[in-house]
Description:
Blueprint: E1 2-11, E2 14-24, E3 29-33, H1 40-47, E4 55-60, E5 63-64, H2 70-75, E6 77-81, H3 92-96, H4 98-102, H5 107-120, H6 137-149, E7 155-159, H7 167-184, E8 187-192, H8 195-201, E9 204-209, E10 212-217, H9 219-224, H10 229-235, H11 240-247, H12 250-253, E11 255-256, E12 265-266, H13 272-282, E13 286-289, E14 295-298, H14 299-302
Parallel strand pairs: 3-8, 3-9, 6-7, 7-8, 12-13
Antiparallel strand pairs: 1-2, 1-4, 4-5, 9-10, 11-14, 13-14
Helix pairs in contact: 5-6, 11-13
Amino acid sequence: MIEFSNVSKRFGQDEAVDGVSLSIASGELFVMVGPSGSGKSTLLRMINRLVEPDEGSVCIDGQDVRNTPVTELRRGIGYAIQSVGLFPHWSVARNIGTVPRLLGWKEDRIASRVAELMAMVELDASIAKRLPAELSGGQQQRVGVARAMAAQPIIVLMDEPFGALDPVTREKLQHAFRRIHADIGTTVVFVTHDMDEALQLGDRIAFIDGGHVRQCGTPLELLLHPADDVVRGFVGGTSAGLRLLSVRKVRDVMAPGNVADGTPSIHAEADLRQALSMMVDRGLRALRVDGAGDQVISLDGLLVPPS
């Protein structure tokens, strides 16, 4: 568990973070979202001591991070940022293996871990010897994610890691990372200013504004019960209902039914936005649900309000 206890941070006369208390559960994919300058990146960087709080404490599993030497602390925490920060004259494989090599892993273990991670983030093994400049932006970001996870850290910090990517590549990486997190269960703290990204990724979301936490809860809680007008405006205002489609899953609204032979199917873990898109694209009012017997999802089912 990561726990912020009444932490504050000032830069000159500016109060970047003001008395924030937050708890992040082990294995959680926790997203901090808010406008630029809200204090979310400052909070993130307190975890690995890139920023030291002026007041309060940050603890990992009950241990104040200030009681752990900085080098030791950071080697146990993965870190991925928007600009990637790959070493330009090192190959993909060497970049991914940076922290394991610093920790003294044997070369065969490093090679095995690099191969495992490249497969996990869907990078072809043939690019292992390439330099970062020879990769696309999406490939570079995948290398950055792999490097952050290379030493099997208990915590991974991600500061707008997909922010510079085009929308198609960004969506692919979001889906890939959600799948990776489900497989490995590492605690992830993810910062973004994009509410759609927060809703897509977060188990829970903290909305940060002006150095304060305005609301913390599940994506559904923020959409259905925003704490105030500021949160309501950020999650979409009158359009928030449309964002519910990207949060809710097919399994939430599927029901027994019949469809014509040859009707396309969709996975139960797909979101309702994907289901609606498929129905509109193919002119259908219902889809079969993969591996769910006689379960279907209908256009009427998409309109069922969450309980």
